[in-house]
Write the structure tokens for this entry.
Amino acid sequence: MIAVINSLIFFVLFFLPLVIFPLKLSPYEKPKVIIFELAVQLLIVILLITKKVIFKKVSLSLLFILALIGLISIYHLLFSHSTLTLFGNPIRFQGTFLLWHLMAFSAISSFVMVRKIPALVPIASALLLLAGALYLNTNINGRAVGTLGEPNALAAVAIFIWPFIFFAEKLKKQISIFAKLAGVVFTLEIIYISQSKSALVALLVQIIFLLLIKFVRLPMGKALTIALILMLSSLILPFLDKSKIFENRLEVWQVSLKTAWQKPMLGWGFGNVEYALEKTAKSFNYNFVRYQYVDSAHNLWLDWWIQGGFVGFAAIAYLVLKSLFNLAEKNNLREIMAFLGIITAMSFNPTSIVTLAAFWWLIGQGFSQKK
């Protein structure tokens, strides 16, 4: 059963991005969400059948924060319910129901520690992802979208995958060197054809962190602190953007801040970002958001503040920081690099289900008791 559990996790992390099915409105995102939810449900059933003592193995602090987020989501279902709250909009399908599955996946990740990932898994995923990016669709601006449907989502997957290629285990020395170079080249190629500026920023944060560890020889905790400062500093880029390479994120962030302040403590409800942004844009005459389809704050932290208020924001911030520094204590360099990249990408873009799955899995890995 352990092999089945690991295989399901490998599929979700490395091969779910390749799923595409001709569903109405959402051929890219919706099938991935449905398959992810089914995979999590199957994992839960397997763990119950094999009589794993789940709750004794889950970190109490992780369980407490997940329960807190769960209570907030139930409160919103009861008292701030909209047509989007439970399942989200028909394109992204990211409502409360998905959030519950993501939290369950994180809890499972905290006691199913996947350290030994066969090198073939991320390499095969990267090759298939690159093939899809090169030979499948582009958007109206000529940017590659591959099997993700959105260029920044495509690049975010590459940002997550390449550390697992770079640190692939049980490879001969010459093959290992080639794999490291190939992982970086693969990521640069995806960034180039997707024209994702946010992914380039994420890659720079990852590489600087790696250099601080390998060449400057800083302790893991100090290197992580510097990387986090760099990541936070990168959020100023849209404010300095004169050529609009960051695609009007500044306008979206301004509306998002006003939206969050209207319901600061418990937020508007998970899945309700689109509704909340539209209502605020109309109230304050933000025409860019008002007359275009915007269903995200284009920032992980603002999305959480809008949906879960300050309580939700504090909860997710605690989970991320605690997980990162736990990983640093365990010297899990591979996971930290992947996590830093994912967080940076999520700080500039709407999130795909594959990015969310990787994000919540990494949170769980940080709370694992195993090294």
Notes: The first helix runs from residue 2 to 15. The radius of gyration is 20 Å.
